[in-house]
Amino acid sequence: MISMRSARTLQQLGVTVCKRSLHHHHHHHHHDRRSVGIIGAPFSRGQSKAGVDQGPNVIRAAGLLHRLEQQGCAVKDYGNLTFEELDHDEPVGRVKRVRAVGSANQRLSKAVQDVKKDGHTAVVLGGDHSLGIGSIHGHAMAVGDLSVVWVDAHADINTPLTTPTGNIHGQSMSYVLRELQSKIPVLPNFSWLKPCVSAKDLVYIGLRDLDPAEHYILKLLGVKAFSMSEVDHLGVTRVMEETCDYLSAKVKKPIHLSYDIDVIDPSVTPATGTPVVGGLTYREGVYITEHLCQTGLLSVVDMVEVNPLRGQTEKDVESTVSTAVDVLLGCFGRRREGNHESDYSLPEP
Ligand SMILES: [Mn+2]
C-alpha cells in the first residue's frame, strides 16, 4: 500500500500516480504504463467544410505516437478507418448526409469496441463531432454504463427536428441520450444505434454558443453544464473538482471524454470549422485533461474538429494541432512540471 505521503513525494517527482485509487485505498491500481489504442476517423460528412478529414494525419504528423511512447505509454495505432462514398444521400427532413453519417458511425462503433476488447484506452482522432455518436455507442457496448464529459463550445444536442443547419455534428448527443429517444425520428442507416447514455451521466464544459432548443433541452433534462460563465466564475480547478464529484457521486463509471478543439479560444486553436470567441485558454484546456487523467477512469477520448484547411496561416494550423496533441498527452500522464520513468536513475561518473 502506498501511503499518502509517499504518493505525494512520487507526484512531486512527476511519477504518475492515480490519485483516486489512493484516496480509496485500492492499491496496485496506478497505471505506470498506460496502453493506448489510436483510431483515425477521417470523416467530414457531419458538417459541410472541407479539411476536417485531414485531422487524424496532421495530429499523427505532429508526433502524437512518439510523444505518448516517450512519456511511458504503450501505443498501438489501428490506422485510419475508411468510409464509403454514397451516391444517393438526400436530406431527410432538414438532416444532411444521414446515410453517410449513419454508416460511418456504425463502423467507428465497431472499431472502438475492438480497441476496448484489446484492453486499451481508446483515442479517436476525428474528423467532425458527429463521430461522437459511434464512439460513445461503441464504448458503451464494450463497458456498459459510462460517464460522458463533453468539452466543447457547442452542446451538439439539437435533435433532427430542431437543427437549424441540418449538420449532424451539431446533433450527436441527442442521438445517444436515453431521455431524448422519443424525440428522434427513424433515420436511414441508424437502425444499429441504441441510446446508451443517461442525462445524469453527462457533463458539459466550455459552452458558449447554444441554439434555443439546445438550451431548453439542457434545462429540461437537468444536464450538468459548466458554460464559460461558470469557468469564469468558479475557475477551472473547481469546475473539474465539481465535475468529478458529480460523476462519481454513486458509482465510478468509465469516463468518455469527447473533446472538441473549438472549446479553446480561437486565438490559440483557429484551425477549426466553427470557432467561437471567448473560449478556454491553452492552460485551462490542458488542465481539464490532467485532472481527468488523475481519476484513472479515462477509457475513451475523442479529439475532433481539427481542420488544417481552416487556418489562415501555417502558424494557425501549427498552433491548433500542437494544442490538440498537448491535450491528448495530458490525458495520458503528461505533467507540465515534467515527467520521468519510475525506474529512472542518475548516471554515475
Ligand atoms: Mn462539437
From TrEMBL:
InterPro entries named among the record's database cross-references: Arginase (IPR014033), Ureohydrolase (IPR006035), Ureohydrolase_dom_sf (IPR023696), Ureohydrolase_Mn_BS (IPR020855)
Q: Name one GO cellular component term.
A: nucleus
CDD domains the UniProt entry points to: Arginase
Give the note describing cofactor binding and stoichiometry. Answer: Binds 2 manganese ions per subunit.
Q: Which domain of life is it from?
A: Eukaryota
Q: What does this protein need as cofactor?
A: Mn(2+)
The keyword Metal-binding belongs to this UniProt entry's keyword annotation: yes
Q: Which pathway does the record list? A: Nitrogen metabolism; urea cycle; L-ornithine and urea from L-arginine: step 1/1
For this UniProt record, the keywords arranged alphabetically read as follows:
Arginine metabolism, Hydrolase, Manganese, Metal-binding, Urea cycle
- GO molecular-function term, one example from the UniProt record: manganese ion binding
An example GO BP is: urea cycle
Q: According to its UniProt record, what is one Pfam family this protein matches?
A: Arginase
Task: Look up keyword Acyltransferase and say if it applies.
Answer: no
The reaction(s) this protein catalyses:
L-arginine + H2O = urea + L-ornithine
NCBIfam families named in the record: rocF_arginase
Indicate what this protein is called per its UniProt record.
Arginase
Species this protein is from: Channa striata
